[in-house]
């Protein structure tokens, strides 16, 4: 046990030299402990296995395919191609052997693809319904002139007739038409050459909910070629 004089000596020591040293020890111990805690956490984090992140799919959309893409279904590649109900040549008196496939030809100076076939015939030749359906739209187009859109009964195919000289008397939107029914007459309205009257005939894949001008074109030439 310290003597009373020693105790008194201890009590009388100034605190100015003691507390700075004590604070230094406390701070050093705290910092050292925190450093070891952080180092331990990093070591444990590196040791814990993690499942690999699945790769996210990247969708690449060509600018010219944002709305509709041309279907891959062509002759010999998709059985649905053969189920399109084309039953009649859309221009009266034209044989399938006389057709020329103009589907991939360029138009507007190469700015676009034709996406249809031109069936040449004298002006006034009857234009016939190539497939059954309902007249979806009668439309006067700057390029197509007098045009007709006929939606097939299943709603998945739209037939388009353009450059007509006139519509058949009484033809109206919403009217149900049968294959072979007269829809109008061959002409050269719109941007067609008056010296070369013809029917611009196109087919589009669509849906029952799509609007009359919405669809993805596909080549009607193989379907017409197999007609009698």
Give keywords.
19% helix, alpha+beta, 228 residues, 9-stranded antiparallel β-sheet, single chain, disordered N terminus, Glucose Permease (Domain IIA), 2 domains
CATH topology of the largest domain: Glucose Permease (Domain IIA)
Report, as a whole number of angstroms, the end-to-end distance.
Answer: 128 Å
Number of helix segments? 3
Number of domains: 2
Beta-strand segment tally: 11
Mean pLDDT: 74
Unreliable spans: 1-16, 50-82
CATH homology-level superfamily of the largest domain: Glucose Permease (Domain IIA)
Q: Rg to the nearest angstrom?
A: 41 Å
Q: Which series of helices and strands comes N to C?
A: HHEEEEEEEEEEEH
Query: How would you describe the shape?
Result: globular
| Main sheet characteristics | 9 strands, antiparallel
In terms of structural class, how would the helical and strand content be classed?
Answer: alpha+beta
Can you walk me through this structure?
This protein is α+β, with helices and mostly antiparallel strands. It has 2 domains: 4-47; 81-225, Glucose Permease (Domain IIA), CATH 2.70.70.10. The chain has helices at 4-12, 19-47, 221-225; strands at residues 106-107, 112-113, 117-120, 126-128, 133-141, 145-151, 157-167, 176-177, 182-186, 198-205, 216-218. Strands 3, 4, 5, 6, 7, 8, 9, 10 and 11 form a 9-stranded antiparallel sheet that branches. Strands 1-2 form a two-stranded antiparallel ribbon. The longest helix is centred in the first third of the chain and has 29 residues, at 19-47. The relative contact order is 0.16.
């Amino acid at each position: 046990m310290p003597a009373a004089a020693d105790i008194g000596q201890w009590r009388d020591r100034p605190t100015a030299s003691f507390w700075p040293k004590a604070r230094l020890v406390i701070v050093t111990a705290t910092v050292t402990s925190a450093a070891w805690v952080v180092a331990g956490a990093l070591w444990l984090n590196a040791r814990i296995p993690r499942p690999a992140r699945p790769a996210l799919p990247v969708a690449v959309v060509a600018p010219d395919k944002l709305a509709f893409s041309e279907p891959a279904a062509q002759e010999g590649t998709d059985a649905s191609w053969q189920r399109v109900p084309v039953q009649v040549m859309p221009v009266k008196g034209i044989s399938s052997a006389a057709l020329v496939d103009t589907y991939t030809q360029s138009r507007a100076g190469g700015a676009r693809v034709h996406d249809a076939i031109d069936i040449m015939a004298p002006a006034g030749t009857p234009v016939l319904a190539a497939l059954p359906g309902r007249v979806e739209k009668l439309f006067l187009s700057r390029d197509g002139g007098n045009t007709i859109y006929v939606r097939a009964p299943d709603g998945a195919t739209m037939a388009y007739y353009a450059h007509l000289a006139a519509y058949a008397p009484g033809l109206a939107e919403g009217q149900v038409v049968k294959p072979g029914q007269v829809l109008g007459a061959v002409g050269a309205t719109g941007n067609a050459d008056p010296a070369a009257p013809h029917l611009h005939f196109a087919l589009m894949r669509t849906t029952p909910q799509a609007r009359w001008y919405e669809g993805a074109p596909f080549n009607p030439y193989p379907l017409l070629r197999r007609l009698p």
